[in-house]
Amino acid sequence: MIYLDNGATSFHKPAAVGIAVAEALRRCANPGRGGYEAAMEAARKVYECREEAAALFDCQPEQVVFTANCTHGLNIAIRTLLKPGGRAVISGFEHNAVTRPLHMMGVNVTVAGRKLFDWDDTLTEFEDALRRGADAAVFTHVSNVFGYILPAEEMAALCRRYRVPFILDAAQSAGTLPVSLRALGADFIAMPGHKGLLGPQGTGLLLCGRSPEPLIAGGTGSESARQTMPDFLPDRGEAGTLNVPGIAGLAAGLGYLRRTGVNTVCRREHRGLEECVRDLRRLGVRVFAGEHQAATVSFVPAGDCEDTAGQLAKLGIAVRAGLHCAPLAHESAGTLDSGTVRISFGYDACPGQNEALRRALTRCPSLRG
Ligand code: PLP
């Protein structure tokens, strides 16, 4: 199978990831819950992962809180910065992982910047909204549907200028674009461990520029006599037993990225994207491509999107069709009715993938209706 659905999760992970998971299952007990060797080994593994993440994202290991996925981290961050009836500014390309918690809490939302690949529009609209006042801003670094890379540094600078705390959703950028907690001055950066960081599903990171409000309370192995959650990081955000095998796998994924280099991964993926965009244009489908694009591209075939993805699956190509949990992004781009077919490259992008995709696309009846 040619796997081009890395926007959903990375698949065919580096071999070291699976090995690390299996080894953790064999050697690790519960971290922070005992002084015997298997508990200490678990604590070392968990700390190793914190250190790897801190090095990649330019923060202290204690600022790295382990979560179950990106959604979990976003919920912690959103509930820390916003209250029911509060005001949030978001981009026009947010995932349901941002919009649903805001909706559920009854936050008043201003959507700012809806033009794809247009930094001027994004920044002008975003600044206008901040100027009108907000309790927090939440924005994605990269659109999971269109690969649009938002001007995160400039948006962060605007938030700092207007003194609006902010959350960056780095679900689609962590591991493929540089992300620095220190340089952005973010209050929180949420990311999955299972996409570009190449860890197993069930892992995620919340980088904390400030102390989070616990989403759940429980045992941390620290300050057990108290009935409130510890004040200090990372314990404040980590109630209950951690996913040690997942975290060990994530440490291996992060190690792979450190050795390979995020820039190398980015270049590799981008070559895949450029070739793919050229091929799609040649086939005459409606392609969403532009400046500031990560290695994800959406297109609308003449026929049905789901049919097209189904036909590609039969030909051995894995892509995703539909709304990709991001109806707001489709509303912004005018594709809410049709959805799109999304192709997203990963760390293992290579010319052979493009060749196989090209061959399969020409054999897809629904591409031309
Ligand atoms: N935000 C964006 C932009 C995403 O693409 C995704 C997942 O696709 C999420 C948040 C949620 O990530 P997770 O599935 O790890 O919770």
Brief synopsis:
With 369 residues, the protein is of the alpha/beta class.
Essential attributes:
12 helices; four-stranded antiparallel β-sheet; 369 residues; binds pyridoxal-5'-phosphate; alpha/beta
Topology overview:
Blueprint: E1 2-3, H1 15-27, H2 37-57, E2 64-67, H3 70-81, E3 87-91, H4 96-105, E4 108-112, H5 119-131, E5 136-140, H6 152-161, E6 166-169, H7 181-184, E7 188-192, E8 204-208, H8 244-260, H9 262-283, E9 286-288, E10 296-300, H10 305-314, E11 317-318, E12 320-322, H11 327-333, E13 340-344, H12 351-362
Parallel strand pairs: 1-11, 3-4, 3-5, 5-6, 6-7
Antiparallel strand pairs: 2-8, 7-8, 9-10, 10-13, 12-13
Helix pairs in contact: 1-8, 2-8, 3-4, 5-6, 9-12
Describe the structure.
β6, α7 (181-184) and β7 form a beta-alpha-beta unit. The radius of gyration is 21 Å and the shape is globular. α1 (15-27) packs antiparallel against α8, α5 runs parallel beside α6 (152-161) and α9 (262-283) runs parallel beside α12 (351-362). By secondary structure, the protein is an alpha/beta fold. A seven-stranded mixed sheet has the order 2-8-7-6-5-3-4, sandwiched between helices. Strands 9-10-13-12 form a four-stranded antiparallel sheet, covered by helices on one side. A two-stranded parallel ribbon has the order 1-11. 41% of the residues lie in helices and 14% in strands. The chain contains twelve helices and 13 strands.
- Assign a percent range to the helix content: 40-55%
Q: What's the average pLDDT?
A: 97
**Secondary-structure content class:** alpha/beta
Q: How would you characterize the largest beta sheet? A: 7 strands, mixed
Unreliable segments of 5+ consecutive residues:
none
The amount of beta strand, in percent, is: 5-15%
Shape: globular
Number of H- or I-type helical stretches:
12
Distance between the termini: 25 Å
Secondary-structure element order, N to C: EHHEHEHEHEHEHEEHHEEHEEHEH
Q: List the bound ligands.
A: pyridoxal-5'-phosphate
Gyration radius over CA: 21 Å
Total strands: 13
- Read across the widest sheet, the strand sequence of neighbours is 2-8-7-6-5-3-4
